[in-house]
Q: What sequence folds into this?
């Protein structure tokens, strides 16, 4: 064999190895899943920690996002490929022209999870009825996000003009410090932050507004850009299968779920264990978004008429 033939064979062999490695790298491309510091993405947290994603052939990493309303932009910039936006943030982003699609369910409202949601009021502020929020400065973990829109819905049902309340954005991890400093009069929050602030003597629960609304609609679900979803159909199938498997653990194994939630949210494990995680429901149906669209339209948050059949990936 001449030197030329040997050189060609070496080049071909190198190309074969390179192609194989590239194929492996592509198949194992890391998927970043972005969520805020709540238990709503517990199914993804558990799927990472328990190796469920890995068993389904995916390499997934969780990325903390401070404010839920920042998730759509993070998806579009490709800093994350999958995000956990609240129903309201997702719908407003789509209404604004962002081509996002829901790919799997995360959490839904339930009697238990509704009880975890409160308007927590700092010391020195008295709230006895809805109208007492008039003129108050209220922090929300994302304007037009889940807790904010629900609270506005509750105010309207109680005959209070939401415009009479001064809303500002406050991230979950900073709520205790802002309440303590008097930077806001109240925050719209959920467990385990409620218990943590109560135990620290920072204030008290002013209203359990989600209990009074008594809904069972989606809180948060997993979403991606439609372009990414179209190009990664196989990965999405694996993601859905992994989330379905993980949801069973979230709903039935408090120990494993609490450990994963504590790890991601940086909340003390004792507090997390004291609060049942929101119910994980991996299947999301288009009609489940109808109530949210109705509420948001009534609050003039949507400019177009959204077609629910196009919002959830089949």
A:
């Amino acid at each position: 064999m001449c030197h030329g033939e040997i050189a060609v064979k070496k080049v071909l062999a190198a190309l074969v190895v390179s192609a194989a490695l590239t194929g492996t790298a592509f198949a194992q491309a890391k998927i970043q899943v972005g969520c805020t510091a709540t238990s709503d993405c517990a199914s993804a947290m558990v799927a990472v920690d328990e190796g469920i994603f890995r068993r389904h052939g995916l390499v997934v990493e969780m990325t903390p996002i401070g404010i839920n309303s920042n998730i759509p932009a993070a998806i579009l910039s490709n800093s994350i490929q999958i995000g956990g936006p609240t129903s309201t943030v997702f719908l407003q982003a789509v209404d604004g022209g962002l081509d996002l699609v829901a790919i799997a369910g995360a959490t839904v409202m339930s009697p238990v999870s509704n009880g975890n949601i409160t308007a927590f009021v700092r010391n020195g502020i008295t709230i006895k009825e809805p109208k007492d929020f008039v003129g108050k400065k209220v922090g929300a973990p994302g304007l037009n996000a889940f807790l904010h829109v629900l609270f506005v819905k509750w105010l309207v049902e109680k005959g209070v003009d939401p415009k009479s309340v001064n809303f500002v954005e406050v991230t979950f991890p900073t709520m205790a410090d802002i309440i303590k400093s008097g930077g806001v009069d109240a925050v719209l929050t959920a467990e385990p932050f409620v218990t943590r602030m109560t135990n620290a003597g920072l204030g008290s629960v002013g209203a359990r507004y989600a209990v009074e609304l008594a809904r069972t609609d989606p809180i948060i679900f997993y979403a991606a850009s439609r372009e990414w979803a179209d190009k990664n159909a196989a990965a999405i199938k694996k993601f859905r299968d992994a989330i379905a498997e993980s949801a069973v653990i979230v709903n039935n194994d408090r120990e494993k779920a609490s450990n994963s939630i504590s790890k991601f949210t940086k909340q003390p494990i004792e507090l997390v264990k004291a609060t049942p995680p929101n119910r994980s429901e991996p299947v999301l149906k288009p009609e489940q978004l109808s109530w949210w669209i109705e509420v948001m339209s009534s609050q003039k948050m949507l400019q177009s008429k959204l077609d629910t059949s196009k919002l959830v990936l089949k």
Q: What stands out?
A: The CA atoms of residues 92 and 305 lie 11 Å apart. Residues 11-17+22-110+218-310 form a domain with the D-Maltodextrin-Binding Protein; domain 2 fold (CATH 3.40.190.10).
